[in-house]
What does this fold into?
Amino acid sequence: MSHISSERIPNNVDLGGDRKLQRALEEWQPRFIDWWKEMGPEGFQEDQIYLRTAISVEADGWAHFDYVKMPDYRWGIFLAEPTKDRTIGFGDNYGKPVWDSVPGEHRNALRRLIVTQGDTEPASVEQQRLLGLTCPSLYDLRNLFQVNVEEGRHLWAMVYLLQSYFGRDGREEAEALLERRSGNEDKPRILGAFNEPCRHWLSFFMFTYFTDRDGKYQLLALAESGFDALARTTRFMLTEEAHHMFVGETGIGRIVERTIELMKQNANGDARAEGGIDLGTMQKYVNLWYSVSLDLFGSEISSNAASYFASGLKARAKEDRYADHLALESTMLLDVPNADKTGCEPQEVALRNAMNEVLRGEYVEDSQRGMDKWNRQLEGAGVPFRFTLPSKRFHRASGIYAGLHFDPDGTILSSAEWDAKKDGWLPTEGDEVFVSGLMQRPIYEPGQMAHWIAPPARGIKGRPLDFEYVKRQDG
Ligand SMILES: [Fe+2]
Ligand SMILES: [Fe+2]
It folds into this structure.
């Protein structure tokens, strides 16, 4: 078995000084590599990829860029620097010192939060494992792999917490994180969106725009945690997460740009006829990935969310923007389905029980920002179409709207109405075949771009667009 020195796992947690933890990670590492080779990017494990690697937590020098084979990527463990005399900023423990170890009474809840977050990281790598074979350019191929290796590092981050703070249970959870498989019926990943197939690059960009953004908000809420190691770990993960959402936002923006060009080339303004992705089809993928991502925030009315907040485990995003950190007196008005399921009625819910909805609300606002950018592109080109986010009630599989049907405006529908109309709102098998069909031939020549997407505004880290971001062994 290969020996891990502290240099092999870049870290700022003094791994070399903790023999027990080092041994635990030594046992886990080869299994991680096996998982990566089996479930990571298919077909590119021997190639040299121009990747960034986290090497410290300094704001200006945390990342190092160079060619690396993915299985040799140096997955490191980094916690943001501790804040001196930090205290818990919310809930019943407000003002008390943060915890340097796991309080016994919160052990199960914390483990559950960490495992749930940790499970999403390898899941997304599994969902995306075949996309390299249909990439629109070497630039995009490299970005896919950058996202993948960093999700791998996020798994390491959560496994570090499990191994160092949760003893034997933690070791078992660390193993289980490598055993579940996205989309597998017998051993699925924990959360729904992470079992959805991601068959093509339109879904990849929607996923990194919408689903990685859920990750951002979960991490922001955990970055406030009274369990200081969790707060510091998630704070550093957010640095990397920003790039994942950039990939999604600019990816969709580049498809919009190309679609506009193709519409102008066609007498009927038909981008599909010109080999592009029409705006209506893109809207369906917005509807899909946005709605499955809304589910990730958990139920609108949740006693779990209330107790996480009360005990100081998970706050609101950027808790210090709020004036009232106890949230005991306030309420939130929610639209709750009525008893006979013919519509929704406003209901006042204690704010602590509505914490999932508070976080989801911030996410909705943030999601709108990219939509506005794409709509400005359309406006600038004189195209009347506008992208919209569907109602929060649309196509929900968890929470108070699950099991009911709503149209994108939030109006309740019968099952028959839903069945008759849903193909106009969500991707059909035909849409999946059409979009995948545009992407059958991968583009591996430096500087070249697939027909359905515009080139990016600039390359990576000051490199030109025709830089060889991936050096292929058999290319
Ligand atoms: Fe992640
Ligand atoms: Fe991510």
Q: What stands out?
A: Residues 151, 212, 215, 241, 244 surround fe (ii) ion (ligand 2) (CB under 6 Å). The chain has eleven helices and seven strands. The first strand starts at residue 48 and ends at 54. The two ends are 32 Å apart (CA to CA).
